[in-house]
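Running this now, will post back.
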Amino acid sequence: MIIQKIFNNNAVEVKESGKHEFVVMGCGIAFKKKIGEQVDEQLIEKTFILKQKDASEKFKLLLEDVPMEYVSLCYDIIEYARNILGVELNDYIYVTLTDHISNALKMFDEGYNNPNILIWEIKKFYPKEFKIGLKALEFIESETGKKLSEDEAGNVALHLINAQVNSSSNKAEDATNQTKMIQDILNIVKYTYNILLDEKSISYERFITHLRFFFQRLNKNEIIQSEDDFLFNQVKEKYKKAYGCALKVEKYLEIELSDEEKLYLTIHIQRMTQRDKETVIS
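Update: finished.
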C-alpha cells in the first residue's frame, strides 16, 4: 500500500497495485511518513473503501475538518448497524452520519439541542433503526463523555433509513413513482376536504414522511399489522371523515391495508386537515 495523501498522523489515503484508492486509519500510521512511501499495514485499524466516487471525495474533504475520533466513532456505529440490520448501506452514510454527529457534538458543547419532530414515527415504524440509534448514543457517551438526547437516536436512525433506501439499484425509478403517488394522495386529501394544504406546517411534513416510510415498508413487504383494535375503532368513529379519506387512499393504492396502517393514516390526515381547514379552495 503506497501513501497517496496524508490527512494527519492517524489517517492516510493509500493505493494498492491495480486497485482503487481508499482511506485507512490507525494510531500514528502517518508519523514521519511521506507521500509515496509504504504504509505499515500492521498499524491499520480501520479501512474505508467507498466505491462511489462522489461519496469518496466528500469523505476525504470531511477528514480535513472532522476530528479523527469522531470519524472512528461513526465507523464503529456504521459497522454495528450493518451487522444488526444485515443490509447494504449506501456509501454516503460515512459522509452524512459523520458530518451530522460532528455537528451534533459541536451543538452539544454550545448548549443547543436539535429536536427531532419525527421521533414518534421513527420509534413506531423503524424500531430496529431506533434501537441502533440508542446504541449509537452509548458509543458516543463512552467515547466522548457527552450524553446526547434521545432526539439524536432518531436522527441516527433517519440516516440509516435513508442509507438503506438510497442503496436500491432502482432508486431513481422508485423515487419518481413514489413522488407521483404522494402527490396523488395529497390531491385525494385536498379534494376530499376542499382545502389548500399548508406545505410549511409540521403536520404536512409529518404526513409526507409517513407516506415515504409507508412506501419503504411496502417495497420491503413489511406492512405493520393491527395491535390495538380498541384504539382503531375509537379513531375510526371519532374521525369519520379522515377515516373515509384513508379508505379512498387505500382504494387508490389498490392494496388491502391493515387496520394499523389505516389507523395511522387516519390520524395523520386528521392532524393535517384540522390545522388547514380554514384555507378552503374557492
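The radius of gyration is 23 Å. More later if anyone needs it.
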